[in-house]
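Justification of computing resources. Each target in the renewal requires a structure prediction run like the one illustrated here; the chain below, 137 residues long, is used simply to show the kind of job we budget for.
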Amino acid sequence: MNYAKHSTLLVLFILLIAACGDEAKEIDKERQMARSWASSVALIGDSWARRYTTTRFAEKALQRSKQTLEKESQSFESRAFKGQQAKIVLTSLKDISKLAGEMQKAVESGNRSALQRPIGQLRQKAEELKSPNEKNL
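Resulting structure tokens:
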């Protein structure tokens, strides 16, 4: 009987470790996605500021980016991940969404110079979201 208790505890412990590993992988996947979004939104703004894309394209791309990031933030938040890395990812998703909205307004008003600050912030955010391995490259 003592063996059965120990076996059950061991199985539960292994499942707990596996679940924590899955959560860490999921958070890392979301971190990579947030980094990609930061770079993509910055590229959209930079392309419009340099007159490489049309106003209509930039408006729609930024609007869709903001909408998608809002949904992704809500989805990530609903999964109730714990820990500092999860907090960083969630804050980043919300910040990137907010910056996409600011950029959309600047594009709508035709203010190309107003994009410099949010583009810089997005590039900084993308840099911050690099994994330790990526930072060493």
